[in-house]
UniProtKB/TrEMBL annotation:
Designated name of the protein: Uncharacterized protein
The keyword Iron-sulfur belongs to this UniProt entry's keyword annotation: no
Coiled-coil intervals, chain numbering: none
Organism: Lactuca virosa
Disordered: region residues: 25-44
Ranges of compositional bias, category Low complexity: 25-42
Example GO BP: methylation
Record keywords: Methyltransferase, S-adenosyl-L-methionine, Signal, Transferase
Residues of the signal peptide: 1-17
GO molecular function terms listed in the Swiss-Prot or TrEMBL record: methyltransferase activity
Domain of life of the organism encoding this protein: Eukaryota
Amino acid sequence: MTSTRLLLLPLLTPTGAATITAASRLSSSPSSSSSSSSSSFSLKVSGPQTLFTRKPWLCGKRHQAIGCLKIEDGNEVQMFGSDDEFGSQLPTQAQTIVEGSGAVLVSEYKPAPDVDYLQELLAIQQQGPRNIGFFGTRNMGFMHQELIEILSYAMVITKNHIFTSGASGTNAAVIRGALRAERPELLTVILPQSLKKQPPESQELLSKVKNVIEKPHNDHLPLIEASRLCNMDIISQVQQVICFAFHDSRLLMETCQEAKNMRKIVTLFYLD
């Protein structure tokens, strides 16, 4: 006895005007020694056909929930089936041309490099002498001044050129340390105004310095404005800035920020 089952498969087309139905007739021979079955499909197409211009037919297997629509030129378009079986499909030639291979869909975000870190690393690798600008507050204890004096001395004996100003406190400690190294050519003091505008104790210390640059054309300016211009002049001549300041030292904070903007290496020591 031959059993017959009819399976109707509605297929949607992009235009919505044409409908395709497939009839599956499954038959098995009683005399067959195996349990396999053969299946055949027939198509009935009604309505206007705008998607396919060649004769289509359905092909499939009974034991797999897979259907495909074949065109006479050999191309296949899969219509339905299990999601597991289509998870690793390769794109068609048309998809590859239009969409690309899809290997890299979104470029990986890479943050911008840390400029300060790269500059410090480059300075470490160079190992050579460089111009260093020292800035700092006038209000400083004796122990802090001794440490700055030792640091300045070490910088000069390693052949670095020191630039600083002529105020008391930090600047005076830097000058004393550099003079101890007995390398007068490696110390340059740039004053915000003329020498006569400096305090008497500063004038006595500056008399021992070989390279002193005065700015008498700034004598008419307030000291804070003349000091700002002097700091900018020092920054323009150095590769690295070392600063000793308090968090509320406005002028020194502005000086360090300006040095960073000019891509200088800035080492800032807070005293509070």
